[in-house]
Amino acid sequence: LAQAARTSYGAGTKRLSEDRSLIKSLVRDEHTSPIEMARLAFESRAPVFTDPRQAARHRTLKQEGFMGYTPLGNLFYQPKESEIKYQDRTNRQGRGKLMAPEHISSVKDNLLKIESLELNAIKKLRELETPEELVRENKGVGFYTRRWRIGDPHNLGNFLRLRLAPDAQMEVRALANEIEGALKAHTPIAHEAIREYIIDGMRLSSKEINHLKEYGLPIESDLEGTAYFERSKGFTLKKKETTNNGEVEVKKLSREGEGFKGKLRRFRKE
């Protein structure tokens, strides 16, 4: 990566300390072309609703997949009980509170029924020597599939920034953790820079910067309500809710406001 950035300097330098400084500055200042000069190819196994459904949205990563008649193709994803939670009301990819025990039991029973129904249908079709492409029609998004991907540190870094985030779907975060481990082993200096400036870094919009210039950093109590955010347009919205007293209008943070709030919390002491 460092040598690719020094194309106009001939042999350049061989000192690792200088390479590290150069690579980190390239990532920090978003000079991405040299960071794309390395390639990492890997094979993964994940449920279809995770990959390709979630991961394949990152179209900068070349990919190929297979879900056939191998034993792998008949594996069905069953979540752990600790991960069977209610839907989060604000984050559509997130889980909320742990379900009540009777609800967990019902969810598990329904998932097992789906698995059994689909596997039985697949078995009958294969007994009839049905073409494999038609057999796969009976496989829902809960089945595992093998995927092969090729990516460079820059584009893999963008993938990790989104899919390692706390509000990302739990299963795709597990996949992202494995990919990050591979990237760290493959190009450790680039990974160090990507982790520092991209994954653990923070971007502020011009609106957020202007708000901070005008009103400064909030105290912890300011983050519990909407008053601090109402000072600038776009961070809050009015929403009607039904209560025992009828329909009332309440102020809530918009998605942009929630994002800004998350950034501000990072300035608070842990």
Plain-language structure description:
Helix 2 (16-28) packs parallel to helix 7 and helix 5 (153-163) crosses helix 7. This protein has helices spanning 2-5, 16-28, 101-127, 132-135, 153-163, 170-186, 188-199, 206-215, 227-230, 255-265, and strands at residues 40-47, 62-66, 85-87, 95-98, 144-151, 236-243, 246-253. The chain contains ten helices and seven strands. The strands form three sheets. The chain has a three-stranded antiparallel beta sheet. It has a two-stranded antiparallel sheet with strand order 3-4. Strands 6-7 form a two-stranded antiparallel ribbon. The model has no long low-confidence stretch (mean pLDDT 87). It has 270 residues and is an alpha+beta fold. The longest helix is centred in the middle third of the chain and has 27 residues, at 101-127.
Main attributes of the structure:
270 residues, 7 strands, 16% strand, flat, 42% helix, alpha+beta, 10 helices, two-stranded antiparallel sheet, 3-stranded antiparallel beta sheet
